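Example record for the data management plan.
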Amino acid sequence: MKQKITKKRIRKFLSYYRPWRRIFIMDMCFAGLSAAAVLLFPLLSGYITGEVLSSWDADTQRNLLLAAMGMAVLAAAEIGSNITYAYFGHAMGARMEGAMREELFAHYERLSFRFHGKNSVGKLMTVASNDLNGMTELFHHGPEDILKTLIKFVGAFVILIQIHVPLTLILFSVLPVLGYAAYRADRIMEAQLLRSREDLAQMNEKLEDTLAGVRTVKAFGQEREEAAEFAQKNRKYTDSQCLFYKVEAEFYESMRGYPRLLTMLAVVFGALFIGRGTLDVPVLVTFLLYVGTLAEPVNTVMNFMRLYEEGKAGFIRFMDMLETEPEIEEAEHPVRLTDPKGEIVFDHVDFRYEKTGPDVLKDVSFRIESGQSAAFAGVSGIGKTTISLLLARFYDVTGGRICIDGTDIRQLSLDSLRGAVGLVQQEVYIFNGTIRDNIRYGKRDASQEEIEDAARKADIHDFIMSLEKGYDTEVGTRGIRLSGGQRQRVSIARLFLKDPKILILDEATSALDYESERAVQESLERLMQGRTSIVIAHRLSTIRGADQIYVMGKQNIVEQGTHEELLARGGEYARLCRLGLSGPQ
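Corresponding structural encoding:
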């Protein structure tokens, strides 16, 4: 947790009311009307017992009927107001919570690879779902409960002080005790609830991680170990919940005794005042009715405390995420990359993943002409993939610059930059849905003819048509119903639809068997035609035909040339080939 509730965060919270301010005003008006009706009800009851029934004459029945009609009107006003503000208020709160969730989702998408590397999907989902679930109730009931409580307490005090000052002061003298207890409970519940939310996030992280890797769990026979680790995190979350419920129960059950304390004070001191002749029984009845009326605001305060703590804990975690600054920001006046040619220049590029960490790249410079293919070779972990991530601006360089068609990519709009770059990785992500949906991801408005043409170029159309539902076949979570080669070809079909000018192939076939690799490689070769291509691979068979091969050493390029030139030179590239690190020749 970075920080708690600040003025900036309060303004942010209040800003969500702005689009719904008319509904909010209406909601508060009806909440006020409901509170006023409840407040006036005992006054009419006191009027009946103290005035109407003080003597029975010709006007008594008429006055009784009028008072009853007044009470019926107040009851109807309260019920109608409650129905109105309950519906519109909850609807308003749900829409405000929905707006927060959409804002958070869009912010997640803007955040860098580094952020997503440090925060698991389970944690991010917990903030977007569990932490925001209580916001509907807080948005709706928070202001409304405060208004109703103020009207009832202040109104009751004003009315009762005019009836009998000493008894009123005695009854309201216990309010500071209630206020102190509420303040103390608030501090304790806040800390415990935040701890509970953190434990929930950790439990969800473990749940998401294990289910996502369930094949690996089963393959290594780790079901018991994973179940034990999940049980440990689940018990930790359960224990923190129980501690919160303990504090909550102590506070709420203590506060529920407050109306009984008021009743006791009213009866005891009221009897004393009656004995002294300064108070009569009908007035005491009125006081007792107001004691009953004050029980509701006490319950309202307790309900508000629960909503406030749950909502505040969720809002703090929400704002911690929302205030995380994106590392990759567009220039103030970004340049759109229109009709890209595909020339790439790395100009003395330095890069490190952490500010205080070691350099991954140091003074790296090279040029790839439009339409050329360039391959990067080297041992694992030497920085080959880093080059592709920098080119797509998933990270920013820490020194030097990268240019496309002569423009520093930091000056380009992100959508036009990434629209010009297509990426095929070893780990292909297939979304849950149909094959058609996944191919169309490369071009959302693609026609069926365009989708099928892309599938043919990716050499997957015939396979799709052999399926019972064809392009409407559901692929399952992460494309689990497709083989590795089929997932790769679906991703290649996406890129044929996207039609990027620059293509990055990052170990695109390294996880495939020999037969699947050949089929996918043919599709990739068709995709590479007419595009500037960067190939990152450890198999020599996938890079030997490149126009230029760059051999990566520690932090920099140590050799460059064609396959034949590098072999003849007998340097690092030739050594890799002899060691077999680059696969069969």
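Summary line stored alongside the record: The first strand starts at residue 344 and ends at 351.
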